[in-house]
# Entry
Amino acid sequence: AQRVTQPEKLLSVFKGAPVELKCNYSYSGSPELFWYVQYSRQRLQLLLRHISRESIKGFTADLNKGETSFHLKKPFAQEEDSAMYYCALRDTSGGSYIPTFGRGTSLIVHP
Amino acid sequence: NAGVTQTPKFRILKIGQSMTLQCAQDMNHNYMYWYRQDPGMGLKLIYYSVGAGITDKGEVPNGYNVSRSTTEDFPLRLELAAPSQTSVYFCASSYDLAGGHPEYEQYFGPGTRLTVT
# Structure
């Protein structure tokens, strides 16, 4: 069964500091991985997906199949980055294609 | 496009009462989902649907029922509400093709905050 682990419930940094939100997964096939973000009082929205290899709002995430990780990184955190971040893995093995979410990491960026 | 809409935004139920959480999407998505979000527990999948007339259980289906009579609507029914069902409920939708879809993305509703006392 697929599993997504976000080991940190809370990550607290100061503005301008580097940020790394960890995501590890277990999955036997070829995974599709995503990061979703939920700002205060807003709905969840897609931040980025590994297949696009894009940088959104200064965030990047690299899929490391050897370490089964998809950590989210930003070199200089901003106060507006404070939010809840969810890592998600989608089953692409020919089954239901239903994603599995991690428990989320709350990022707080202090001024 | 309104995207994914949910009603009500808030609701307080007494133990044993029933209610239906409404969810609708206007993007012609074939997949729809219901999640509950509990503090520190992330998103748990309750039920999902891959198309009109087809529903399936997720990780935490007990105490809930769903139906999908149209592509647009995916209501979640709570029968005999219990305090353990106090949570924030999110509906989501996506468009997916057999074999996967490279532009896959889930679109979420604003959520319904439910308290059972």
In short: The radius of gyration of chain A is 14 Å.
